[in-house]
Amino acid sequence: MKPLDETTVLDALRQVVDPELNCNLVDLGLVYSTEIRDGHVRVVMTLTTAGCPMHESLVEGVRTALRALDGVREVTVEVVWDPPWSPAMMTPEGRARLGLA
Fold first, then answer.
1. pLDDT at 53
2. Cα–Cα distances in angstroms (integers) from residue 99 to residues 13, 33, 34, 67, 93, in the given order
3. pTM score of the predicted model
């Protein structure tokens, strides 16, 4: 059993892919922070645009991915718009995946 820590949470969130960009949320730079406390995981994230048609699907994907982890009892996802997302927030892996490296 892997410990429930930030690395484990981020690895799980890499399984959630934005279907429009075909890149995971972590490498897109959409995950701003994670907090783990007593089996409760809180994720603060954004989306590429405020009108993203995949909003609910991506948030539910985050919940599903995290609920599958050992030790997770509750998941809270907070979508924020400040700071606004920009391609500069992407990881080098995300930029390479989208041909922006």
1. 84
2. 21, 25, 27, 32, 10
3. 0.93
